[in-house]
Amino acid sequence: MDRRETAALLAYIGRLDPRTIRTDQGEARDQLAQWHELLGDVPMATPHGWDARVTARQHIRTSPYQILPADVARPWESYRRDRLARHSDPTPSVDPDDQAAWTAELASARRAVASGLAQPAQARAITSGRGGIDSKLEARLREIGSCIPPAARAALAPYRPARAAREAAVAQGQPDPLGVRCGWCLAQPGEPCRRRRIGPDDGVRGTAPRAIPHPGRLDLAAVQQAQQVQQPAMV
Ligand SMILES: [Zn+2]
To answer: DNA-binding phage zinc finger domain: from which residue to which, for each copy (predicted)?
Structure first.
């Protein structure tokens, strides 16, 4: 709060607790200087629940001791701490490779939360899907089609062979076997084919994903792709 706001706060406090009023002009000036020095970085009020007057009033209501600047500064510090503890950094909307801009956006979001100008962002806000994702970030995701950058996806390919084979097929305009249901192992669209694992007693011991779809599924995908290509011509 600036000097004028500090003076207003002191006037308000004086009305609630006349002991704090300084009648001597020099003393009043010193009191204002002291409060201003100690509360200069504490806002008078924020849009999200902080009000120095409410804090002062609460102290005068519940404490027999005369209010000190610390009785306003301490609640402000805990208000700040509490908000930062509840804040989980949202994903910045800038290019992740631009380290400086990325850090700057995170820091400015934290500053806004700490100073009470913005509400803390909860982790679930990221996944809620209702205005949780920054619109600029959403545009970026649409552009690259995945939250995994292309380079990282390429590096991951050896560890998810079915998915990599599918992406390669789609990129080359070949039929996408994972786009259809497998008639052999009944894998649903999007799921890799699975092979049965047989135990020593011939009992089925579960299934494991196959890197290569069953041949029937490839055929089915080819038929379906041919139909999709023909359809626009027939209309
Ligand atoms: Zn299959």
So the answer is: 155-230
d(CA 200, ligand 1 centre) in Å: 23
The dihedral of CA 48, 51, 57, 63: what is its sign? positive
Gap from CA of 163 to ligand 1 centroid (Å): 14
3-state SS assignment for residue 196: strand
Å from CA of 55 to ligand 1 middle: 67
88 pLDDT exceeds 50? yes
- 153-186: per-residue pLDDT in tens? 777 777 777 777 777 777 777 788 888 899 888 8
Nearest to 27 by CA among 35, 15, 17: 35
Within-domain flag for 73: yes
Last residue of a domain, one of 85, 106, 128: 85
- Residue 176, domain extent: 150-234
Ligand 1 center to 161 CA (angstroms): 15
Residue 222 included in any domain: yes
The amino acid that residue 113 corresponds to is V
The 3-state DSSP class for residue 195 equals: strand
Report the separation in Å between the CA atom of 95 and the middle of ligand 1, taken as the mean of its atom positions: 40
Domain stops at, among 62, 85, 108: 85
* Total domains present in the chain: 2
pLDDT in tens, 190-231: 888 888 877 777 677 778 888 888 889 988 888 887 877 665
pTM of the entire predicted model: 0.49
Residue 173 lies in a domain: yes
What distance in angstroms lies between residue 207's CA and the mean position of ligand 1's atoms?
A: 11
